[in-house]
């Protein structure tokens, strides 16, 4: 038997715009997903037959990248699914990590590339931000060209993403889960329709990209005030793009009095928000009072790794 684990992620700045090839910053978080794999008479997931309907990411990963004997896979996760915290990417990465270990060894870049392929098969239009963060862990900065701390490059149609390691200081970060599960594919498609139809939409996407570039500088300088301001501006632009929701706005408003900044994270439409704060307990209380589920998370944790059996 082999066991691998991968972290969830939060997008600090740049979701949605990154699908168009704009820069973004994402951090791995201390909520993990574990996958154990052992030979079996047929493919199963937590004792149930592997199914496209119930396990789309695992089904695509096994169908596309495993031609060995049937496997019994057991998945356990700290990540609520559909929460915007990278549960689909984490399951894909952890399964690929486990099957690679059953065969031989693998590299981070090969897992990240295949995980992005799986996500694209299941989700449709996507960027490699989630899958690369869950693979590499710690922090990543996606840019339009190759720079310092370059990790790997991923291409799709005319788009190119240059993935870099991003050093991030330990920061107080609270995640607030709305309890509303939103599907990423339709939200990404909605933004594409907006951007295809209007130059204003394209300007919003460009500005989000610029915010991510500026945010990287603030992060390196550990300038929380500046970073918080950028998060708030990013949230306004995401709301104009139509991917925020009343539940998200409620949790963001409740967090702001105790935070440097707050915004949705991931695809939006529900899912989760994040708040950068020195007062995590106050933010957790405010989120709970507004009906959300708070998690205080550590950022910058390890990526895909083998676990002791
Ligand atoms: C989802 O976590 C982030 C999006 O930008 C989609 C993607 O990058 O694939 C909304």
Key traits:
Alpha-Beta Plaits; binds (R)-mevalonate; Ribosomal Protein S5, domain 2; alpha+beta; 4-stranded antiparallel beta sheet; 309 residues; single chain
Could you characterize the architecture of this molecule?
- It is a single chain.
- This protein is an alpha+beta fold and about 300 residues long.
- It is about 40% helix and about 25% strand.
- It contains nine helices and 13 strands.
- The strands form two sheets. Strands 1, 2, 3, 4, 5, 6, 7, 8 and 13 form a nine-stranded mixed sheet that branches. Strands 10-11-9-12 form a four-stranded antiparallel sheet.
- The protein is globular, with a radius of gyration of 18 Å.
- The model has no long low-confidence stretch (mean pLDDT about 95).
- (R)-mevalonate binds near residues 184 and 267.
Short description:
The protein is an alpha+beta fold and 309 residues long.
């Amino acid at each position: 038997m082999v066991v691998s684990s991968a972290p969830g992620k939060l997008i600090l700045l740049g979701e949605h715009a990154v699908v168009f090839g704009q820069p973004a910053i994402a951090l791995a978080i201390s909520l993990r997903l574990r996958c154990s794999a052992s030979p079996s008479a047929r493919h199963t997931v937590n004792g149930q037959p592997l199914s496209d309907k119930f396990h789309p990411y695992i089904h695509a990963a096994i169908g596309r990248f495993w031609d060995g004997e049937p496997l019994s896979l057991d998945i356990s996760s700290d990540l609520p699914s559909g929460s915007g915290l990278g549960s689909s990417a984490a399951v894909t990465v952890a399964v690929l990590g486990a099957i690679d270990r059953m065969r031989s060894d693998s590299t981070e870049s090969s897992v990240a590339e295949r995980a992005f392929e799986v996500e694209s098969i299941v989700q449709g239009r996507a960027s490699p931000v989630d899958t690369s963060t869950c693979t590499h862990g710690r922090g990543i900065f996606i840019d339009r060209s190759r720079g310092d701390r370059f990790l790997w490059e991923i291409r799709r149609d005319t788009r190119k993403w240059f993935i870099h390691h991003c050093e991030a200081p330990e920061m107080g970060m609270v995640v607030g889960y709305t309890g509303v599960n939103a599907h990423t594919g339709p939200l990404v498609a909605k933004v594409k329709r907006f951007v295809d139809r209007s130059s204003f939409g394209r300007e919003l996407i460009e500005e989000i990209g610029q915010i991510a570039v500026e945010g990287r500088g603030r992060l390196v300088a550990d300038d929380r005030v500046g970073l918080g301001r950028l998060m708030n501006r990013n949230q306004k632009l995401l709301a104009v793009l139509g991917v925020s929701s009343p539940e998200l706005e409620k949790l963001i408003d409740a967090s702001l009095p105790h935070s440097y900044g707050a915004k949705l994270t991931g695809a939006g439409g529900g899912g989760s928000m994040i708040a950068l704060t020195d007062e995590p307990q106050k933010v957790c209380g405010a989120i709970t009072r507004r009906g959300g589920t708070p998690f205080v998370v550590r950022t910058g944790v390890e990526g895909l790794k083998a676990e002791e059996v």
